[in-house]
Amino acid sequence: MRAAELCLISTCLLMLQLLPVYGGSADPDDFRKMTAGVRKKCIAETKATLEMIEGTEYGEFPDDNRLKCYFKCALEKFNMMDKNGRINYNLLKKMIPDPYKEIGNDMVDSCNEIDATDKCEKAFNFMRCMFNVNPMVNPILD
């Protein structure tokens, strides 16, 4: 897979939070299909459960190392985290589609000071921060 495609896919993590809140018509299931290969690899690698991962879309972030390392795995496979644990915030911001630039940039900027020595912890804290800055509306409950 080309680097550009990996970068595009990486924005899916952000888009799952932006689209329902701002009336996007994209289906979250489309994003799940696009990221299925990475999801499958990272689940196998970390032993995180699908229920655990999907629960984060609704604000459930259990303090579980499997989930923490799942996020690290996904960010690394999407080239959004390097081997030293640095998250590439600038690249993530460049990949946000124009209609979502303002809120997306605000979310990333709000979460770019995550400090943790452990890469799993840092990835987890970043994803939790992104959710907390702009919690996703549960479309089933609306």
Automatic annotation (TrEMBL):
Keywords: Secreted, Signal. Gene3D superfamilies: Pheromone/general odorant binding protein domain (1.10.238.20). GO terms for cellular component: extracellular region. Its main location: secreted. SMART domains: PhBP. One of its GO terms (biological process) is sensory perception of smell. It comes from the Eukaryota. One of its GO terms (molecular function) is odorant binding. The keyword Flavoprotein does not apply. It is found in: Secreted. Residues 1-26 form the signal peptide. InterPro entries: PBP/GOBP (IPR006170), PBP_GOBP_sf (IPR036728). Belongs to the PBP/GOBP family. This is Pheromone-binding protein-related protein 1.
